[in-house]
């Protein structure tokens, strides 16, 4: 029941693509993550995925019915990837994110490409 500093939460870890759970709201995790480079193509079949860029710039490639496109999110921007849509986040120069996802949501989705070594397939980690 104390305030949580997002700056301190982000300073508490260095691992990229490995989100930390800062709090919970009803049945949702509020996660922060450091990202750099590319994630992987994946889809969440049953949930949307909310992104808020705290620092840096995030690119999200989307596979839509008419083809692929990339959404560019500068610092301070939000975007929600709809459930069932394949997407691939990337941050060419690094970024820090805040995410809302149902508790237990796997970072690599329900269906995905092979998970590269730099991506943590997790349901989120508690802060130290």
Percent strand equals: over 45%
What is the general shape?
globular
Tell me the number of helical segments per DSSP (H or I, 4 or more residues long). Answer: 1
Instruction: Provide the CATH architecture.
Output: Sandwich
Unreliable segments of 5+ consecutive residues? none
Report the CATH C-level class.
Mainly Beta
The value of Rg in angstroms is 14 Å
Number of domains: 1
Classification by helices and strands: mainly beta
Question: What order do the helices and strands follow?
Answer: HEEEEEEEEEE
Q: What is the typical, i.e. mean, pLDDT?
A: 96
Specify the CATH homologous superfamily. Jelly Rolls
How would you describe the overall organization of this protein?
The chain is mainly beta. It has a single domain, classed as Jelly Rolls (Sandwich), CATH 2.60.120.10. The chain is 5% helix and 51% strand. It has one helix and ten strands; from the N terminus they run H-E-E-E-E-E-E-E-E-E-E. The strands form two sheets. Strands 1, 2, 4, 5, 6, 7, 8 and 10 form an eight-stranded mixed beta sheet that branches. Strands 3-9 form a two-stranded antiparallel sheet. A hairpin with a 2-residue loop joins strand 5 (58-64) and strand 6.
């Amino acid at each position: 029941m104390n305030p949580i500093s997002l700056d301190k939460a982000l300073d508490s870890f260095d691992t990229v693509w490995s989100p930390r759970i800062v709090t919970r709201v009803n049945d949702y995790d509020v996660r922060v993550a450091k990202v750099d480079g590319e994630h992987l193509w994946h889809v969440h079949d049953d949930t949307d995925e909310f992104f808020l860029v705290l620092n840096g710039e995030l690119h999200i490639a989307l596979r839509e019915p008419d083809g692929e496109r990339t959404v560019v999110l500068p610092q301070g921007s939000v975007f929600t990837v709809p459930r069932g849509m394949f997407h691939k986040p990337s941050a060419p120069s690094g970024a820090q994110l805040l995410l809302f996802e149902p508790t237990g949501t796997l970072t690599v989705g329900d269906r995905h490409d092979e998970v590269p070594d730099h991506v943590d397939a997790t349901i989120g980690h508690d802060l130290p």
